Amino acid sequence: MKKKIAVFALALVLCTGCASINTAASKAETTQATGASAESAAASDNETEPASGTQPEDADDAAAEAVEVKLDGSSVTIPDGAAGITADGSKITVTAPGRYYFTGKLDDGQIIVNATKEDKVDIYLDGVEITSSSSAPIRVESADGCTVHLTEGSTNVLTDGTANEFSACISAKDDLVIKGRGTLYVYGNTKHAIKSSNDVKIKNGVLVLEAVKTGVYAEEKVQITGGNITVAACKDGIKAQDDADPAAGIVTIEEAEIDIKNAQGNGIEGAVSVTVSSGSVKIHSIKQAVNSPTQTVADGCLTVY
Prior knowledge:
The chain is mainly beta. It has one domain (18-243, 254-270). It is 7% helix and 49% strand. The chain has one helix and 29 strands. The longest helix is centred in the N-terminal third of the chain and has 21 residues, at 24-44.
């Protein structure tokens, strides 16, 4: 049985400011807190992802092979003859559909997806760490959709600087999907951790997000169908913004474990609706736990603390 949630009584707790959230101390603290969650999510996730150090397999296109890209500080190694991907110093641009498999670390670089509107691009992260001082570590400029795969057992870290020209650490103009059996830390020091001008879909994996503004932000829809997500957002935890289109401004959550900590705004906000049908959602926020004209939360799925 479902019930309508109207107003939540929230404990007013003073939260610390977030002038610069990307610190070694916060990373170590979060890693320790979520280690058990990562193991649990990896064990329960049935999605087939490549083991660390191997190319992913695709049952729909067994003949296709991922392009293996190695990151090393300020340099990038792409296999000779690889099509659809180029590197200019530490700036990588993907211009064609396909699967691209990344390992290593970039001290100040980014991955840009700039394909056609008909192209689907798959980005595999396997032990990747990218810091970008003036842009988004992952930027989807154009594509039919981009899927970020977290390879099994991997830990990946993306961090932007306070001068990021875009408004998110992972910034997408088109649909963005995140899935896999690995872990992803995203530190949004400019504004949001993850943002799409269309939809954000999180299917599984362990995500740890910190942001000056919002942890997961979509103009149209946020759809979460699994995974373990921790949001330490200084404003809103999860948000779907568009209120002009009745088919947008929607947040849906099922079969996920979500913990939104110390949000100084709202925990979850949907301009049109918020639906939590299953899973476990814990919210600590200064304003409303759920803020939306239409709120449907299944019994026992929401804890306000």
